[in-house]
Amino acid sequence: MKYYKVFSVILLALLTFCYSSISAQNNRDRKPTNLKVLPADISGQDLRNVMQSFSSALGVRCEYCHYEEENDFASDGMETKRIARVMMKMKSNINETFLKEARSIKNDVVDLNCVSCHHGSPKIRLLEDVLYSSYQTKGIDSSLVQYNNLRKEFYGAAVYDFREMSLINYSHKLTEDKKYDDAVKVLNKNLELFPTSTRTLNSFAQLYQFKGEKETALQYLQKTIAIDPKNRFANQMLERIKSGK
Ligand code: HEC
Ligand code: HEC
Q1: Which phi and psi (to 5°) does residue 186 adopt?
Q2: Measured in Å, how far apart are the chain's first and last C-alpha atoms?
Q3: Could you tell which of 26, 36, 38, 66 is best to mutate to test the pocket of ligand 1, judged by most ligand atoms within 8 Å of the CB?
Q4: Cα–Cα distance between 202 and 207 in angstroms, integer?
Q5: What is the distance between the alpha carbons of residues 34 and 25, in angstroms, rounded to a whole number?
Q6: What is the pLDDT of residues 158-212, one digit of tens each?
Q7: To test ligand 1's pocket by mutation, which of 51, 52, 61 has the most ligand atoms within 8 angstroms of CB?
Q8: Among positive and negative, which fits the CA dihedral 165, 167, 168, 169?
Q9: For residue 117, what are the contacts with CB-CB under 8 A and spacing of at least 6?
Q10: CB 197 within 8 A of CB 175
């Protein structure tokens, strides 16, 4: 008797699940009622392909732009959906004017797509700007933890640039703000990842020069010159410091 009860509860749950996923599917496949950019008579398959291409170009799920829970794909309630529409018009416009013109000059010019700019992320921000903005709200240590996390998630994905310049540029922003200790942390992090980065060593030198610590600045320039004797930046800066300019 007991087993029977358990069985019927499971059966009921299964039926409810099937029913709701079928009705979700129906809702999804329903004729679209609110297309303002795509052709009104687009086939269900083509619409799905376009939507999947949006999701993968931005690295998001449908619910980033739609109230998927309520099965309401027609609603324009979400600002991301309304922005996506602007983006669709921008993309066609660029393709039909500028890229068409470029193609009349050189015929293998490719079309612009969402992924050409988005590379798998809805936000298009330079890594140093992302770090700098979280620095301003949460401080240096948390911005470096964020660097590690973004590196884990996006390394090699062409969303952010993990080459040596991003942390260097970030440190320059902190140096400009006279946050020297924090800039040092950032440059040390970079040196861990790029032990022979002369640009990092040169940035240390600049930082210490700004701070008025000429001796330390000179030490870093010498480190650069030990790795790359002809380094223009380091040799010029060395000359300037030595001649007292
Ligand atoms: C980046 C935002 C974005 C993402 C992600 C996205 N969509 Fe859309 N979707 C739109 C926009 C914009 C429209 C309206 C297009 C137009 O006006 O021509 C739309 C329209 C639709 C419509 C037609 C609704 C109607 O009745 O007019 C359906 C269905 C739909 N999307 C399903 C999906 C599904 C399923 C996914 C996930 C695979 C998805 N969308 C992901 C932006 C998005
Ligand atoms: C020429 C480059 C370019 C192309 C092509 C492009 N976008 Fe964008 N998109 C941007 C920029 C720049 C932003 C602003 C990003 C930011 O503030 O970080 C943006 C922002 C967005 C946003 C808002 C994201 C948010 O959360 O604030 C959505 C949604 C979006 N784009 C969807 C699309 C879709 C869908 C396509 C293809 C139809 C597309 N974009 C094509 C450059 C582009």
Answers
A1: -65, -45
A2: 95
A3: 66
A4: 9
A5: 18
A6: 778 898 989 999 999 999 999 999 999 999 999 999 999 999 999 999 999 999 9
A7: 51
A8: positive
A9: 124
A10: no
